[in-house]
């Protein structure tokens, strides 16, 4: 394992600006897992990292892959005071987060954000989203909570208080050898297992968007980042799109070509970053094959969600 650009004091205030008005406790840390087989951090991931810094987090970036980081990536981390770590690929995001927990870089952090590079965005300032949602006031909080398989917070963006991290069920999750697990094992023991551990510790699952109490989701649970991708991003409630949705579209959702519509004209996110990424080969794992019934369900819900959102938006604009 190779360590680069890590300062002697890994938990220290970022120092770029004053974050006293955000509500984020001083000394809070973000663990960001990125997969870079070519050692290059793409511009949309750099943009995401800058948004995390703007929230006030001390940022630890773990770049997983066999190729050393390129000079531009190293310069970006130095310029933005990002603590940069490089490790062999293994264990996906939970393996990278466990790697940092083992380094004890957040042992004194009052709040820890776990995030990864599996999304495009944010299309609106992340700090504003988190402040409006009062994210920092909850012991466990995510951007999306879903009933699919079992009630859980989607692991690509989860915030946990230090007290929550120290509970025995959560500690057991992050003691697991994710680097020796398959992708499916990591999903079961990591993403789903973490939320089960939170509930076992008596900690509720809070999120910016949730279908945990939605009647339809009780009978027809889906991945909302697929079925509700348009309204989540266009509303600004969850201003991201999953990369694998646009890359693979496993459920053959028909309206994905409308993705530029959800990026506001005032956004600092450059849509060309997505367009360029989709023309490049992405060696990430392909999800399991879907069924005809599943594809029909996802297409129906996604199309309805888009139409309902556009109708509501048109009605609001007409009223003004």
Automatic annotation (TrEMBL):
Protein origin, superkingdom: Bacteria
Any Pfam family the entry gives: RgpF
GO MF annotation terms: transferase activity
InterPro entries the record matches: RgpF
This protein's UniProt keywords: Transferase
Name assigned to this protein: Glycosyl transferase
